[in-house]
């Protein structure tokens, strides 16, 4: 059974709704849910915010918080997860921010942050240092995000 299937099973049992705010994963986390039959009962949806402007306009994160804390940070991942949770009124949220290739703002490829938020627990972010091609890093980050959420709700 895939990790996303396990999450959906737990979410169905507990009447959870899941939402995502993704940056460099570009919808891969959302895709992991929607590719499973019956996911619409628990997967609310998500927002892809690949640039700072999208994070400020779509997630209502003040630009000064992004710039002050760097876009690739635990703080930004937490802000993204908390914002999508609030906007959608979901029970669980996952966010991703990071660098999949090259160097951005002095941050090396493979530096990623996953945010997990939920009603009933404090939002947290996890730092990942992944290796591989751009798409391998994105896929690995998606897998790690799902594992983190599963561990949180199991």
Short descriptors:
single chain; 5-stranded mixed beta sheet; 154 residues; alpha/beta; two-stranded antiparallel ribbon; 45% helix
Write the layout of secondary structure elements.
Blueprint: H1 3-14, E1 18-22, H2 28-34, E2 43-48, H3 52-59, H4 63-69, H5 74-88, E3 92-98, E4 103-104, E5 107-108, E6 111-118, E7 121-129, H6 134-153
Report on the structure:
Strand 4 (103-104) and strand 5 (107-108) form a beta hairpin. The chain contains six helices and seven strands, in the order H-E-H-E-H-H-H-E-E-E-E-E-H. The longest helix is centred in the C-terminal third of the chain and has 20 residues, at 134-153. The protein is of the alpha/beta class. The mean pLDDT is 93. It has a five-stranded mixed sheet with strand order 2-1-3-6-7, sandwiched between helices. A two-stranded antiparallel sheet has the order 4-5.
């Amino acid at each position: 059974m895939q990790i996303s299937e396990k999450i959906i099973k737990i979410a169905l049992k507990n009447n959870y709704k899941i939402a995502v705010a993704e940056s460099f994963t570009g919808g891969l986390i959302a895709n992991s849910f929607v590719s499973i039959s019956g996911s619409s009962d628990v997967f609310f949806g998500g927002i892809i915010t690949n640039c700072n402007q999208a994070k400020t306009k779509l997630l209502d994160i003040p630009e000064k918080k992004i710039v002050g804390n760097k876009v690739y940070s635990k703080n930004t991942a937490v802000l993204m997860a908390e914002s999508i949770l609030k906007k959608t009124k979901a029970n669980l949220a996952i966010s991703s921010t990071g660098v999949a290739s090259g160097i951005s703002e002095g941050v090396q490829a493979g530096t990623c942050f996953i945010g997990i938020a939920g009603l009933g627990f404090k939002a947290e972010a996890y730092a990942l240092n992944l290796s591989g091609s751009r798409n391998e890093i994105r896929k690995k980050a998606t897998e790690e995000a799902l594992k983190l959420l599963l561990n949180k709700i199991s």
